[in-house]
Design goal:
The protein is an alpha/beta fold. The protein has nine helices and twelve strands. It has helices at 47-54, 81-87, 109-118, 125-138, 144-148, 157-169, 187-204, 215-221, 248-255, and strands at 6-17, 20-32, 36-40, 62-65, 68-71, 74-75, 92-95, 175-179, 207-212, 224-229, 232-238, 282-283. A seven-stranded mixed beta sheet has the order 7-8-9-3-10-11-12, sandwiched between helices. Helix 3 packs across helix 4 (125-138) and helix 4 crosses helix 6 (157-169). The longest helix is centred in the last third of the chain and has 18 residues, at 187-204.
C-alpha cells in the first residue's frame, strides 16, 4: 500500500477570546495521497483553518493539538520554524482566495515569482527569470514578457490568480493547498484556471487539497470529498458518489443547490442536528 503524503489524526484548533473558547477544528482526521481531495462545508466550518494548520500559518494565540500531523514522514507540529520555512513554498504551497491580498502591491509580479524561486534554490537571477517566464507560459498567460513587468493592480482577477498559481507551482511542490482559488472568477476564467491546475497537478504527481463552497465543482474536479460541519469531518466520500451521500448534512447541502432538472419555488434550508457534533464520520471507500 502506498503511504499517504499527508496524515492528519485528531487535529484540534481552538481560540481563546473574551467570550470563552472557540473550537474551530475538532477531532479532524484524514489522509491525502497524490490525489485531488476537496474539502467542502459552510463558512466557519473549519476548512481554511485546517488547510493553514498544515503550514503552521494559524494565527498566534491559537491552540493546536494533534495525535499526528505528518507530511512525507515529517512531524509538522515538532518541526522548527527554520525547518518549516524550507517546507513552505518548496514542498507545500498554498494558493489563497484573492490574489490582490496575496501579491505584494509594490513589486512587479515577475519579480515576486523570481523571489519565490530563488529563496529555495541556488539559482542566478537569469535562471530564475527564465523559469518564471516558463511558468507564466505554463499557466496560459499570453505575452509573459509584458506581464512579468506589471504591478498587481494592473492585472485582472483571472490573470492574478494564474500568476499566483505560477508562483506556487514554480518549485514543483508535493502538496498544493488551494483555498477557494476560483470563487472570485467568472465561469470561463474559472474553467481555465481549473484546467491549468489539473494539468500541472497531474503532470507533477502532486497532492491537492481543494477548499471550496461549490459542491458541483468539487464533485466534477476532485477524486475525493471531505464534508466539514462545525469543525468536524462528517463524511469522507469519493467525489463521483457525492450525489449519493449518506450523511444528512451532506444531503442538506446538496438539496440546497438549485437544479435545472428539478426546479422548486424555494430552496431547502439545511436544518442542523446537535447529534452531528458527536456522530462518527461516514467513510465510503472508492469502488
Amino acid at each position: 500500500m502506498v503511504k499517504p503524503l499527508l496524515e492528519v489524526e485528531d487535529l484540534n484548533i481552538s481560540f481563546h477570546g473574551g467570550r470563552g473558547v472557540t473550537h474551530a477544528v475538532r477531532g479532524v482526521s484524514f489522509c491525502i495521497g497524490r490525489e485531488k481531495v476537496g474539502i467542502v462545508g459552510e463558512s466557519g466550518s473549519g476548512k481554511s483553518q485546517t488547510g493553514r494548520a498544515m503550514l503552521r500559518l494559524t494565527p498566534k494565540g491559537a491552540d493546536i493539538t494533534a495525535k499526528k500531523l505528518s507530511f512525507d514522514g515529517i512531524d509538522l507540529l515538532a518541526a522548527t520554524e527554520p525547518e518549516m520555512r524550507k517546507i513552505r513554498g518548496k514542498r507545500i504551497s498554498m494558493i489563497l482566495q484573492d490574489p490582490k491580498f496575496s501579491l505584494n502591491p509594490l513589486m512587479r509580479v515577475g519579480q515576486q515569482i523570481v523571489e519565490a524561486y530563488r529563496v529555495h534554490t541556488p539559482s542566478s537571477k537569469a535562471e530564475a527569470r527564465d523559469k518564471a517566464m516558463a511558468m507564466l507560459e505554463a499557466v496560459n498567460i499570453r505575452n509573459p514578457q509584458r506581464v512579468f513587468e506589471l504591478l498587481p493592480h494592473e492585472v485582472s482577477g483571472g490573470m492574478g490568480q494564474r500568476i499566483m498559481i505560477a508562483m506556487m507551482l514554480i518549485l514543483e511542490p508535493d502538496l498544493i493547498i488551494a483555498d477557494e482559488p476560483t470563487s472570485a472568477l467568472d465561469v470561463t476564467v474559472r474553467r481555465q484556471v481549473l484546467t491549468i491546475l489539473d494539468e500541472l497537478v497531474t503532470r507533477r504527481g502532486a497532492g491537492l487539497m481543494f477548499i471550496s463552497h461549490d459542491l458541483n465543482l468539487v464533485a466534477d474536479f476532485c477524486d475525493r470529498v471531505l464534508v466539514m460541519y462545525a469543525g468536524r469531518i462528517v463524511e469522507d466520500i469519493p467525489a463521483r458518489d457525492l450525489r449519493h451521500a449518506e450523511h444528512p448534512y451532506t444531503r442538506a447541502l446538496l438539496d440546497s443547490l438549485p437544479r435545472l432538472d428539478r426546479p422548486v419555488d424555494m430552496l431547502t434550508v439545511p436544518k442542523r442536528d446537535p447529534a452531528w457534533l458527536t456522530s462518527p464520520t461516514i467513510r465510503r471507500a472508492s469502488t
